[in-house]
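Reopening this one. Same input as before:
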Amino acid sequence: MKSVFCLFMSLLLATVIAATPQQDVAIQKDTSIVNDSLVQTSLNDPKKVFKDLFISNPSAGVGSVQLNPRAASFVQDYMASHSRHLIKMKDWALPYFNMIDGVLTAHGIPNQLKYLAVIESNMKAYALSWTGAVGPWQFMPSTARRMGLKVNPYIDERTDYYKSTHAAARYLTELYSTYKDWLLVIAAYNGGPGNVDYAIRKSGSRNFWDLQRYLPEESRNHVKKFIATHYIMEGDGSIATVTKDEASQMMLSPAGKNLLTKEELENSKVQSISGKYSSIIITQYILMDLLTFNRYNPDFDKQISVTGTYELRLPADKMQVFNAKKNQILEESLRLLLTPVNSIGKN
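Same output, byte for byte:
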């Protein structure tokens, strides 16, 4: 596994070197909360190489989402031990991911929160924790019932992918209305709001990286597992992997997500579209990654679900493909929206 990871990192590094100059960056090792201090690294340190993969390139628009230095060591180790398994999951779990994307988007939640189900249950419908949490979203009975699921001796809707995802979306929305920060939401989802509230009081901060030492170890590591899984699955971070303050600083707020370079603007086309299109289906047909699509078209799914119209912007060649296939794209988008995916087989 170590040799595979080294090869993986070498390939990624080769890509970064071609686009971004090397920088001598400090990394904060976060495997020990007690010794939570910055450690200067040398150019041949593999952790330094790892960190360089997540440095934003200001000249390239929004670009990559910078990984918080205090997560770097944990994420590196997690990638080394889990990348192969998670990359395989991207294939067999694709129908589940597509369904979850649609549900989360309909609730106005970043669809990257689907990776919470990955670390909660490994995407297994009948996953059972030692505490009694059940299903892909690992609901306890009381929370499940409060979120509208039936849990009784005869039926347990926590094991239903579609219904439990709607319940999870409702719960995530409730938590976000309290914390306004996705990292705190993930911590509260795992350890309960009480533990997060305690950590906020003890630390005097609402920044996850400052209050994490007051959280139970499982909860603080849960957040880092989510971040690591996100990077493995997406090859980048998102609004869901940074704190509220980091999101503002890195221009990841809805107002700043559409920053494009001058060249990207000049080589793109804008077209008015109407209909219940899905970004997931569009990107599948035009062969464009979802993060890039969202950068060109901020809040696409949310706006088109409300108004039914959008000023779509795409690179010229991608717009040509879209127009050639837009009838198929719309048909499949409607199918995804209107057909509950509770018929997907259980794992």
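So the earlier flakiness isn't reproducible anymore. For the record, The first strand starts at residue 27 and ends at 28.
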